[in-house]
Design goal:
Helix content: 10-25%
Shape: globular
Number of helices: 5
Strand order of the largest sheet: 1-2-3-7-8-12
Largest sheet: 6 strands, mixed
Strand content: 25-35%
Radius of gyration: 18 Å
Structural class: alpha/beta
Distance between the termini: 36 Å
Order of helices and strands: HEEHEHEEEEHEEEEEH
Low-confidence stretches: 1-14
Mean pLDDT: 88
Length: 255
């Protein structure tokens, strides 16, 4: 993602936590960007908040990833780990075509291209976290759903009861690393993000297994492009009624 100014970086360095909203029988969990690369406490609190919202949900679960620009994937995946089967989530393939499986085990991410997975404490998890794998889960995406949020979609699709609604994602499906460099002209550090690989999923997603900066297509395409770029509030935005009704109808259907 290209960031050209300090002001633009502040837009993406999102320190908001997941929130919840209701629409009829839908419980919408809004999952925002998680840009805080130097604050593990924030990332662990983010994951904890997300997990608690899911585990105490009433009604049908909807994960809203619209306008989630990415950031750290670990708190997003670990926070939703009750909805994802343990095992290999996907493979990371490096620039030499070496394959590195990424595993979810006991609410921890393991494996991957060396150096690409950040370890987070799971002390916030209940001692016996129950999996929620036998009920439908809807995921909302749009063309601003990017990077780490897209890797979350790939992980969630290991649950056969997950379906994606909305618009194709942004297509930043690459595996990245970051490094900090000193800046001789300032006390601030340079933050460099660079690509080291791409994704291969276990099961085809709309016929596609390789994701190398390609968007993820929704299962149910529904236009809600009037949503403001910086907003996740589906209930107060114009043009989202059809999206929410499509999701509501899916939950009561047999499909």
């Amino acid at each position: 993602m290209k960031i050209t100014s300090d002001e633009e970086f502040q837009t993406f360095e999102n320190s908001n936590f997941p929130t919840i909203s209701k629409y009829k029988n839908l419980t919408i969990i809004n999952i925002p960007s998680a840009y805080s690369p130097d604050d593990k406490n924030f990332l662990e609190d983010y994951a904890s908040t997300l997990a608690k919202l899911i585990n105490h949900v009433s009604g049908n679960i909807v994960l809203n990833l619209s306008n989630n620009h990415g950031g750290a994937r670990e708190p997003m995946i670990l926070g939703t780990s009750s909805l994802i089967p343990d095992g290999v989530l996907f493979n990371e393939i490096d620039n030499h075509r070496n394959r590195y499986p990424v595993l979810l085990k006991n609410a921890q991410l393991l494996g991957g291209i060396p150096g690409t997975i950040n370890t987070l404490s799971t002390s916030w998890l209940p001692s016996q976290q129950e999996k929620i794998l036998n009920q439908k889960v809807a995921v909302i995406t749009n063309d601003k759903t990017s990077s780490a949020a897209e890797s979350l979609i790939l992980a969630l699709r290991n649950n056969p009861n997950v379906r994606v609604f909305g618009l194709p994602s942004a297509g930043y499906t690459s595996v990245n690393m970051n490094r900090f460099f000193s800046n001789h002209n300032s006390k601030e550090l340079w933050w460099l993000i660079y690509t080291v690989g791409y994704y291969e999923v276990n099961f085809p997603i709309n016929g596609q297994c390789i994701f190398n900066n390609q968007p993820i297509s929704p299962d149910y395409k529904v236009d809600f492009s009037l949503l403001k770029d910086s907003d996740q509030d589906l209930l107060s935005s114009q043009g989202t009624d059809n999206l929410l009704e499509t999701i509501n109808n899916w939950f009561v259907s047999d499909s």
